[in-house]
Amino acid sequence: MVARVATVAFLGLEARAVEVQVQLSAGVPAFVVVGLPDKAVAESRERVRAALTAIGLALPPRRITVNLSPADLPKEGSHYDLPIALGLLGAMGIVDAETLAGFVVVGELGLDGRVAPSPGVLLAALHAGEHELGLICPAVQGPEAAWAASVEVIAAPDLLALLNHFKGSAPLPPARPGEARFDAGGPDLRQVKGQETARRALEIAAAGGHNLLMSGPPGAGKSLMAACLPGILPPLTPAEALEVSMVKSVAGELGDGAMSRNRPFRSPHHSASMAALVGGGLRVRPGEVSLAHLGVLFLDELPEFQRAVLDSLRQPIETGKVTVARANAHVTFPARVQLVAAMNPCRCGHLGDPALACARAPKCAADYQSRLSGPLLDRIDLHVEVAAVSAADLVLPPPTEGSAEVATRVADARAIQTARYAGQGVRTNAEADGDLLDAVAQPDEAGRRLLAQAAEAMRLSARGYHRVLRVSRTIADLAGAEAVGRVHVAEALSYRRRSPTA
């Protein structure tokens, strides 16, 4: 007899069906797992053996063969423990095989029989819903799995409780979806004194989802303004929150099954490797650029990152997704992020101050800034110089306008974009491209003449030209203007980086 239990293998945000086949046969007692298992899957034999012993059961003195089908698909992770254990119990006649056929099973087993959490439960629940199956998962991840509508979720704290549930002696309570939280905490823009140009650029970036680079001396408030950005961004829609939660689930970062409507804000250290930033590793995991999907990726001290690591962001910034290529698989993760970066003008940070600048100025600035490639800088929509804050600014009272007032304008501009791009697969102006961009962002005659002159004088690339159009459209949306005018184009051009040869 062969007992069969359904589970899944994860490739990026895709859950592929895997069938766990367990056979008991005559021969020398052995416990073999086949079907391209990795080290964690192969070690499940000992965890399953110990878990069964903990609930008073012993493996039969027969040859046990576990096949993970399809056999040519790599199997990674500890979430195969529970399906292997249930398949073995089904082959032993302890659990009804027909009952198991109606569920997808994921979960890691402890030596005492507890069912421990494992990454990807939300993806497994969505996969189960698509195939009209139920889901058996760890108890602590029941609220996470319950977010998948119309899926029967059995969230078991341990193997014995699951057996009692199947026997009907102690049914497990139904899982409830976790709380959808929204916390608009964090620094308030009222803490930023002076920096009117940078505050305006931050508002434009938030309204249109544009990339932003702030350059200025240390202590000018660049990191503070970046930390204020989540407070002025609109909350995630339910569909967006599900997208973000899927990435967190496969990364194992969705705690307590709580789905957050806050936009992600990731701030990796400049020592981060390429795999940490864009994803990868021995067992491919999403990187920071994917964990910041639909949110903000903040890179402080931008030139201190390795150049190859920064250049690996060029494709995700442009396409909104990142593909990690391996010999045995190509894994794609979403990466529609808003890049916000901060940097000093030079190594010492005081290029414009003769009293504080180092003796190598201005050569030190050229060496420092040359660490950033031109193609990467060309993908950043807004470049803004952040001046040092004077003592006169610091003693002034806080600004009358804070994050709440700016967030209202940003929400209004985002609402305009949502209505404009309905059914187009585009969320913000920063994502508009091609004919769609030409249709919604073409300026009036005066604006076209100014843009044409500026493109020639500033040596704008085709990418830079279109990014100016996108920013112009956002500025017009903030002003409530139906058409893009010359004044909107002029402001967008003021945030554009000039070519060094211009």
Structural summary, described in words:
The chain is 38% helix and 17% strand. With 502 residues, the chain is an alpha/beta fold. Strand 15 and strand 16 form a beta hairpin. Helix 21 packs across helix 22. The protein is elongated. The relative contact order is 0.10. The mean pLDDT is 91.
Keywords:
alpha/beta; 4-stranded mixed beta sheet
Number of strands: 18
Question: Residue share in helices?
Answer: 25-40%
Major beta-sheet overview:
5 strands, parallel
Strand content: 15-25%
Distance between the ends: 77 Å
**Over all CA atoms, what is the radius of gyration?**
27 Å
Uncertain runs are none
Task: Record the strand order, biggest sheet.
Answer: 13-14-17-11-18
Structure annotation, total helices: 22
Give the overall silhouette.
elongated
What is the structural class? alpha/beta
What value does the average pLDDT take? 91
Q: Could you give a quick summary of the protein structure above?
A:
The protein is an alpha/beta fold and 502 residues long. It has 22 helices and 18 strands.
List the helices and strands and how they pair.
Elements: E1 2-11, E2 14-25, E3 30-34, H1 39-42, H2 44-54, E4 63-69, H3 81-91, H4 97-100, E5 103-105, E6 108-109, E7 115-116, H5 121-130, E8 134-138, H6 142-145, E9 153-156, H7 159-167, E10 180-181, H8 196-208, E11 212-215, H9 222-232, H10 238-251, E12 259-260, E13 265-266, H11 274-278, H12 288-291, E14 296-299, H13 307-311, H14 314-319, E15 321-325, E16 330-334, E17 338-343, H15 363-369, H16 374-378, E18 382-385, H17 391-394, H18 403-420, H19 434-441, H20 445-457, H21 462-478, H22 486-494
Parallel strand pairs: 3-4, 5-8, 8-9, 10-12, 11-17, 11-18, 13-14, 14-17
Antiparallel strand pairs: 1-2, 2-4, 6-7, 15-16
Helix pairs in contact: 2-3, 8-9, 8-18, 8-21, 20-22, 21-22
